[in-house]
Design goal:
The chain has 5 helices and 5 strands, in the order ααβαβαβαββ. With about 180 residues, it is an alpha+beta fold.
């Protein structure tokens, strides 16, 4: 910068006055984060869990969920449990009410069948805040998946993929199965 440029700058700034310092008030504390509709959803889950008895015969006794249709070979189940199928799509249901979760799962499976997806992950959550009756969404997902003709098998996901809060699901099309007449 030349001396001439510096002088021009000083002349241009001769009328400028510094701003008065302001006292800044501390920022207001941020409200505690809470999921939208969480209280209503929790109430709906509680109502649903009390209104709809779950058939104990349809549930696994432990935290792990495993199901396969007749004709699905054990080696396919072993690969599924080990997470050796590529998960092509997933849906996260935890935090939804029972009816919203059912609709979302049904639509998701239908869309996956249309796209000829072979393996998906369904995240149902662990039900840690479901109270003494246990994880509502997890139990109903177990029941719903067993009743869907397009589902040939499912198994609890590996810990890295959600553990007991998710399942790998094999869908009918493209699943190698001998003698299976399910779809």
């Amino acid at each position: 910068m030349t001396e001439e440029d510096k002088q021009a700058f000083r002349e241009a700034m001769s009328d400028v006055r510094p701003l008065r310092p302001r006292e800044l008030s501390p920022p207001a504390p941020k409200p505690t984060a809470e999921a939208r509709f969480s209280r209503l959803e929790r109430e709906e889950i509680l109502r649903d869990s009390l209104a709809d008895g779950i058939d104990p015969a349809e549930l696994e006794t432990g935290e792990e969920m495993v199901f396969r249709r007749p004709g699905i070979p054990e080696d396919i189940m072993r690969k599924l449990r080990r997470g050796q199928f590529a998960v092509e799509s997933e849906i996260d249901l935890h935090g939804l009410g029972r009816h919203a979760a059912h609709d979302a799962l049904r639509d998701f499976i239908g869309e996956c069948m249309t796209r000829r997806v072979r393996c998906v992950r369904v995240i149902h959550g662990k039900g840690l805040r479901s109270g003494p009756r246990g994880p509502v969404i997890k139990h109903v997902v177990n029941r719903w998946l067993r009743r869907m003709d397009d589902v040939t098998a499912f198994a609890t996901a590996r810990p890295v993929d959600g553990g007991t809060g998710a399942v790998y699901v094999l869908l009918g099309r493209g699943v190698p199965r001998k003698g299976y007449r399910g779809n």
